[in-house]
Amino acid sequence: MENFTGFLAGIDDPFHRERTEEVFTWIKDNYPNLKTEIKWNQPMFTDHGTFILGFSLAKKHMSVAPESVTITHVESDIAKAGYEYTKEIIRIPWNNQVDYTLLKKMIDFNIKDKANCTTLWRK
Q: Does the reported pTM lie above 0.85?
C-alpha cells in the first residue's frame, strides 16, 4: 500500500481518507497478489500488468472503475447495492456502506477474465 501513501495523505476530508484507506486495505488483505499503482494520478490495482480496478474521489462519492465489460457483468448487483453507475464507473456515495461482496465479484471476474491478457486494458 506504500504506493498509495501520498494519494491518501492528499485527501483533506478525514472521513473520506479513512473510508478510502479501508477499501484499499480490504482489497490488499483479500488480494495480496494485486499490485498497487498510481497511473494518471489515480490509484489502481493491477495483476500481471493488466488493470483490475481503479478509483477516483469526488465531493459526494468514491468512484470505482472496473472497465465496462465488468460493469455489464455485475450490473444487477450494482442496482441492488443502490449505486449510480455509467458505462465506465460506479459511484459509491460517502454516506452509503461499501458493498464488499460487489467489489469481490468485480475483482474476481477481472482476475479470471483477464488471466491471459497481456495489455493494461482489454482489447
A: yes
With respect to residue 123, please indicate whether it lies within any of the assigned structural domains: no
- Cβ 99 vs Cβ 81: under 8 Å: yes
pLDDT in tens, 3-34: 899 999 999 999 999 999 999 999 999 999 99
Of the candidates 97, 26, 101, 37, which has an alpha carbon nearest to the alpha carbon of residue 61? Answer: 97
Residue 104, helix vs strand vs coil: helix
Q: Domain tally for the chain?
A: 1
* 10 domain-assigned: yes
Is the separation of the CB atoms in 94 and 62 below 8 Å? yes
pLDDT digits (tens, 9 = 90+) for 45-89: 999 999 999 999 999 999 999 999 999 999 999 999 999 999 999
Q: Which domain holds residue 43?
A: 2-113
36: domain CATH number? 3.90.1150.200
Which residue type, as a one-letter code, is found at position 96? N
